[in-house]
Structures are given as C-alpha cells and as structure tokens.
Amino acid sequence: MHFTSLKRLAASLALLAIASSAWAQYVWIDDKGTKQFSDMPPPASVPKSRILKQPGNSYSPTESAPAAEAGNDNAKAPPSLAERNAEYNKRRAEQAEKEKKAAEEAQLARDKAKNCENARNYQRSLQSGQRLASTDKNGERAYISDEQRNREIQETNRVLAGCK
Predict the structure, then answer these.
(1) Where is the stretch described as Disordered (predicted)?
(2) pLDDT tens for residues 99-124?
(3) Considering the domain boundaries, does residue 38 fall inside one?
(4) Which residues of 15-43 are buried (b: 16+ CB within 10 A; e: fewer)?
(5) 78, 118, 135, 138: most buried, per Cβ within 10 A?
(6) Does 107 map to a domain?
(7) Does position 50 have pLDDT exceeding 80, yes or no?
C-alpha cells in the first residue's frame, strides 16, 4: 500500500510540474491590435502597457480596461450614419466603375479576338493561291494582282503580329 501512495504522489508532482509550465504564458496586444499568446516574452518593441499577462501575474481584464480607454481618447469617434452612408455610396460607385471597366475590357478582348480570326482567314485565302476578286468603282469584278496580294499578305502579317 505504501508503494502505491508513493506512485500517486510522484504522479501528482509530475502533473503539477507540467501544469505549472502552462501558467508561464505571456499575453500581449501586438501592433495590429490582436491578442498574442506565447511562452516566450513579447518583442522589445511592445510597450509594457500592452502586455496583459506575464508569468507570475494574473490576467485581469479590469486592469487592462483603463489602458484601452486611454487609447480610445486619442482615437476619433465612430463615423456617423451620414458618413457611413457616404462611404457606402462611394464604395458602391467605385465597384460599379470597376465592373463597367471590366465589361469594356472584356468587349475589347472579344472584338480583338474576332478581328484576329478574320485576319487569319483572310491570310489563308491570300496564301491559298486562288484568284481573289473585289468590286471596283463601277461595280465590276476586279481581280487582285500579285503585287496587291503581296501587299495584302504583308498587311495581314502586321495585323496578326498584334494578335499574339
């Protein structure tokens, strides 16, 4: 029996030692305003007023409340309803402008893709070697010459260079 009580005592002491390390925690508020928890001390850049808990000190939200209130004195008051509405309307107008711009860019991209496809088809027709005809001022059919064909091929190559 004596041996079992020694085992229990040893286990209890081990649990106490482990649990005591859990009390060695630091709690502070970082530059972004979020609470940080660590077993290491906060960086030196954190002022003492923002350290909420250190090993050996108990956590007390009432002690940190005056510090938070002191910080609020310097901060500006929350925006009024009119200011919030104005900000909302501004954000909504900006969003509408972004959507309009995106729609215009999408339309330009579709137009460019269509023009590039038309240029590719025309280039295939020019390079196929078949005779191409167009109507002149009098409404008569006129076939393009080899010089005109070469100029048209160069022009379509220039247009297609911008399609990549």
Answers:
(1) 34-150
(2) 999 999 999 999 999 999 999 998 99
(3) yes
(4) eeeeeeeeeeebbbbeeeeeebeeeeebe
(5) 118
(6) no
(7) yes
The whole-angstrom separation of Cα 156 and Cα 154 is 6
The closest alpha carbon to 40, from 56, 55, 52, 20, belongs to: 55
* Total of domains in the chain: 2
Helices 81-127 and 146-161 cross at an angle (nearest 10°) of 150
Listed residues 55, 72, 103: the one ending a domain = 55
Instruction: Mention every residue, 6+ apart, whose C-beta is less than 8 A from residue 80.
Output: none
- Is position 125 within any domain? yes
Distance CA 68, CA 120 (A): 68
> Can you give the residue range of the structural domain that contains 41?
25-55
Q: Does the pLDDT of residue 23 top 80, yes or no?
A: no
Mean pLDDT of 15-31: 74
Residues listed for the chain: 164
